[in-house]
Amino acid sequence: MNTVYVALGANLASPKAQLDQACQALKALASDGQLSVSPYYQSAPMGDVPQPDYLNAVARFTTTIAPLALLDALQAIENEQGRVREVRWGARTLDLDLLLYGDWQLDIPRLQVPHYGMKTRSFVLLPLLDLAPDLILPCGTKLTSLITEELKRQVQQLGPDH
Length: 162
What we know:
Elements: E1 2-10, H1 15-27, E2 36-37, E3 41-43, E4 54-63, H2 67-80, E5 95-101, E6 106-108, E7 111-113, H3 122-131, H4 149-153, E8 155-157
Antiparallel strand pairs: 1-4, 1-5, 2-4, 3-4, 3-8, 6-7
């Protein structure tokens, strides 16, 4: 059994509804059917592709699903919710990224865990902090050491009603 953290993002086709629906789908991947989800955050898109702002969150659950099988399951959820991969960092109905898989460190062609960009992305770090303020990454870095005032200014936490 491993505790996993998954980043969620959406900026098309009712982003809040997309995240809500994805959370329901993620529950089915949890060994005990339990899922913890951070508050939703609004953030500007990455890259230079003109598009709407994103809604982002992080979910935590435990699973016995192997990392690559979990990646396949996450991509299936994205596809079921209309994800189309045409432009790198382009607009999307749903993006699910496997951030952490227990204390595992993987670097294989289809999957890098911990996620390669998680240490610098405010829309990942702040929701992750909401779920696991005492988290220490597999490399030994304390999550709190990555949080800066600049990161906090880059996203806006939405209220409990999202």
